[in-house]
Amino acid sequence: MVVDALGNPLRVILSAGQIADIECAAEAIEHLPTQAIIADKGYDADHFVAVIEAAGAQAVIPPRSNRLVQRHFDRHLYKDRNLIERFFARIKHFRRIATRYDKLAISFLSFIHLACTFVWLA
After folding, report:
1. How far apart, in whole angstroms, are the C-alpha atoms of residue 45 and residue 47?
2. Which residue segment(s) compose the domain that 85 sits in?
3. What pLDDT score does 17 carry?
4. pLDDT band, very low/low/confident/very high, at 16 (cuts 50, 70, 90)
5. In Å, how far from its chain's centre is CA 95?
6. 51 Cβ contact list (under 8 Å, min separation 6)
7. Residues 28-51: pLDDT tens digits?
8. What's the total number of domains in the chain?
């Protein structure tokens, strides 16, 4: 999920449950005009940071504690990461999304798009 600076959804990619989110991260931010990409420690990988910097954006991702060379990141800008958490809290008000009633991925993704529409309208 990618949200803008106001917490509105921009892009949704549904992946399999056993796949790490970072596998789809480069695809999610592809062709998005932005100045900074804010993500949590789970996205701290050299190849993803290189994709962000190649796009001309700043990677605001805190480094993992086991990194040999710790990267610096903007702590003040990182505080805005709560926008994605608030977005997920909003769409989980839809019981169908929170409990994943749909068996088919296309049905679940369709309802996520519908919930995103409600977020944009609210």
Report:
1. 6
2. 2-121
3. 83
4. confident
5. 21
6. 25, 26, 29
7. 999 999 999 999 999 999 999 999
8. 1
Residue 19 one-letter amino acid = I
| Secondary structure of the chain in HEC code, one letter for each residue | CEECCCCCEEECCCCCCCCCCHHHHHHHHCCCCCCEEECCHHHCCHHHHHHHHHCCCEEECCCCCCCCCCCCCCHHHHHHHHHHHHHHHHHCCCHHHHCCCCCCHHHHHHHHHHHHHHHHHC
Amino acid at 78: Y
Token representation of residue 104: 């088919």
pTM of the predicted protein model: 0.87
Those residues with Cβ within 8 angstroms of residue 116's Cβ, 6 or more apart along the chain or in another chain: 9, 12, 91
Q: Which tokens hold the place of 56?
A: 């001309």
Structure tokens at 84: 């994605």
pLDDT in tens, 54-65: 999 999 999 999
Residue 10 belongs to domain with CATH number: 3.30.420
